[in-house]
């Protein structure tokens, strides 16, 4: 009887949790700030939840860039385990403009493939009880617009000036489940369209290395039970850019 009550309470708990979580975990989008042919940008970001994203971009010409991104997470807590993997590839157009050519506009589109599984669990007097396991594989299409400005302001720290760069990435992602299993039983698949705006600030440590803080939201344009907009982006990252246009030193 006690075990049945625990299971009932667990089921009610997972129904409540579905309104604020999702099987989809957005990655930190690629914001390479490419400016010239031959420029290479690589970065690594991690969120407070432990979602790690690795981005790489290369300028094939003075206006065409290609992207490769990967993300992974393995987060185990007392009440929920969440595992996530994602791989993206894409490409697009970039250009610099402004009086000092220090403003950058980037337009990228691409595809992705990923998987996630989350397990809800409950501690009882009889031990750990797993009461809901959700396993998903999915495909992704995305389009994003990046706008950024290089070396507009500087931060003085320990007697040194560190140029600050600012940017915004507006991304639309269409995510569709390939397979969805709940407690090893096949479920109807879901899809959603996500609007994922992020804002980032970079502090230039030297001409090639920058520290980036990214914050953003995730909005689902469809009402879904599992493929919903329950996770956002809040990350710290390290970026390395080699090549590109040299800019005037910030004041």
List the main descriptive attributes of the protein structure presented here.
251 residues, mainly beta, Lipocalin, 1 helix, 12 strands, elongated, disordered N terminus, disordered C terminus
Number of strands: 12
The strand order across the widest sheet is 1-2-3-4-5-6-7-9-10-12
CATH fold label? Lipocalin
Average pLDDT over all residues? 86
What is the CATH first-level class name?
A: Mainly Beta
Percent range for β-strand residues: over 45%
Structural class: mainly beta
N-to-C series of helices and strands: HEEEEEEEEEEEE
CATH architectural name: Beta Barrel
Q: How many independent structural domains?
A: 1
Any low-confidence stretches, pLDDT <50, length ≥5? 1-20, 247-251
The largest sheet, given as strand count, sense and whether it forms a barrel, is:
10 strands, antiparallel, barrel
Gyration radius, rounded: 21 Å
The percent range for helix content is under 10%
- Total helical elements: 1
Keywords: Signal
Protein name: Outer membrane protein beta-barrel domain-containing protein
Signal peptide: 1-22
Organism: Rufibacter roseus
């Amino acid at each position: 009887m006690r075990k049945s009550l625990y299971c009932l309470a667990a089921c009610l708990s997972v129904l409540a949790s579905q309104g604020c979580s999702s099987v989809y975990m957005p990655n930190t989008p690629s914001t390479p700030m490419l400016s010239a042919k031959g420029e290479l940008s690589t970065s690594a970001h991690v969120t407070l939840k432990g979602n790690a994203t690795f981005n790489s971009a290369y300028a094939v010409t003075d206006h065409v860039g290609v992207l490769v991104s990967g993300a992974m997470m393995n987060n185990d807590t007392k009440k929920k385990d969440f595992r996530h993997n994602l791989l993206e590839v894409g490409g697009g157009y970039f250009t610099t403009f402004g009086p000092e050519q220090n403003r950058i506009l980037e337009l990228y589109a691409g595809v992705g493939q990923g998987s996630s599984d989350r397990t809800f669990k409950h501690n009882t007097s009889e031990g750990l009880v797993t009461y809901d396991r959700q396993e998903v594989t999915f495909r992704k299409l995305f389009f994003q617009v990046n706008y950024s400005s290089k070396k507009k302001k500087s931060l003085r720290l320990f007697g040194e000036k560190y140029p600050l760069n600012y940017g915004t990435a507006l991304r639309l992602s269409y995510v569709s489940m390939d397979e969805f299993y709940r407690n090893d039983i096949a479920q109807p698949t879901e899809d959603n369209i996500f609007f994922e705006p992020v804002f980032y600030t970079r502090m230039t440590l030297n001409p090639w290395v920058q520290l980036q803080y990214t914050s953003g939201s995730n909005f689902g344009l469809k009402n879904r039970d599992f493929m919903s907009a329950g996770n956002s982006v809040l990350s710290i990252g390290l970026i390395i850019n080699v090549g590109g246009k040299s800019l005037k030193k910030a004041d």
